[in-house]
Design brief:
Blueprint (H helix, E strand, L loop, with lengths): L17 H27 L1
Length: 45
């Protein structure tokens, strides 16, 4: 199992690095904040 990038395990938590997981969460949260902000801005206008 020392072959490097082996993605055959069923559990993604053992292979996905933490920084990538946090990056995806942060990107999703940032997109949600931008969409909500634009919606509120257009509603107030």
């Amino acid at each position: 199992m020392a072959g490097g990038k082996v993605v055959t395990q069923p559990n993604p938590n053992t292979k996905m690095p933490k920084w990538l997981l946090y990056g995806l969460i942060a990107k999703g949260a940032l997109i949600a904040v931008v969409i909500i902000g634009v919606t509120i801005f257009m509603t107030i206008r």
